[in-house]
Design brief:
110 residues, mainly alpha
Length: 110
């Protein structure tokens, strides 16, 4: 912001929003691939099924699920945020255009 004005480069902001949405999709894809591998490997309980393995399982499983859920959520939120940025830019540009047209009509009526 400079002074009392906000300057927006709509093209650049749209590209930024689109890039953010793509980043979210990439995070989601990585979660599906690598997170799926983590789930598959840990389902086999490679730490064993003895007392020590059972204790590890009790502590590990909840953390694994929390991390994988967060990973999924981050990907989805980034994609949504990118889409929201693009939508916001489009709404701002449309509002600005509508306001400019109204001001032009008001000036013409004087």
């Amino acid at each position: 912001m400079t002074g009392e004005q906000l300057w927006l480069d709509p093209g650049r902001a749209r590209r930024g929003g689109a890039d953010l949405a793509l980043a979210g999709e990439a995070v989601t894809a990585r979660r599906a691939a690598e997170g799926g591998e983590i789930e598959a490997v840990s389902a086999a309980r490679p730490w064993g099924r003895d007392d020590i393995g059972a204790a590890f399982e009790r502590n590990y499983r909840g953390i694994e699920q929390t991390v994988l859920r967060a990973w999924t959520g981050v990907g989805h939120r980034l994609a949504e945020l990118g889409t929201d940025v693009v939508r916001s830019v489009d709404a701002s540009v449309q509002t600005d255009g509508t306001s400019a047209a109204r001001l032009d009509r008001a000036a013409d009526q004087r």
